[in-house]
Amino acid sequence: SKTYKGEGYNELLFEDAPGQEQLNLHAQRDMNTVVLNDRTTQVGNNHREKIGEEQHIEVHQNRQKNVGGVERQKIGQNKIEYVKGDYQHFSNLETLLSSAEGDIIFETAGGKITITQDGQILMLAKKIIINGEIVKINCGQSLQTVDVGELLYNQSQKKNAWLAFQYFDSNLQPLPHLKYTATFETGEKREGQLDNNGYVYIDNPPSDIIQLEIRNNTQVKWESMFNYLDKILVKGVNNVDR
């Protein structure tokens, strides 16, 4: 039907010619569909939708989507998600989170980790725990500066406080007799030299270490000292086999 006193038309077309069957529905302006119960749409081949402006979808209960192949999203501007409950992501293989130009931020009420676009990793929290049998830190070339925060620092009631670390090359071979400078929270600095096995022990440090400098072009590995802690608590610092 042609639009009354205007341009355009509404159309409902049926074509039944063999090989050309089609149902064509054309609305010159608005189209409203109301379904009081269920609605089912089944497409045997491809399904395409093109929306010139905005799309709003409102689901009062659950929504489920199953994709048998690959799903891709391309968003021209921002994407914002609000989740009132838990948010979970499961991946059987690799998960990649990449930001080409901006920072990547992980934040909770008690802490924050920021990977900046200029190559820094910033960790803000009341307490940071790194727990591993071996922790490797590669500090690059020349003078090496490691912000270690609380480096294997132990204070047990009236026991003597101590800290220790071991230094390795890229082949995990101990590097002995290297000179180091340790800077503490109090501002005090202590200099020394690693022993034959690449270890250094500092008894009764004034506070936690905030900076460690080692003058060598190698790779660093922090050795777990918890076994030494057990020995010290039982025998005392001076009786530990070093």
UniProtKB/TrEMBL annotation:
Organism: Gallibacterium anatis
Name assigned to this protein: Gp5/Type VI secretion system Vgr C-terminal trimerisation domain-containing protein
UniProt cross-references to SUPFAM superfamilies, sorted A to Z: Phage fibre proteins
Domain of life of the source: Bacteria
Pfam family, one: Gp5_trimer_C
Domain Gp5/Type VI secretion system Vgr C-terminal trimerisation: 5-88
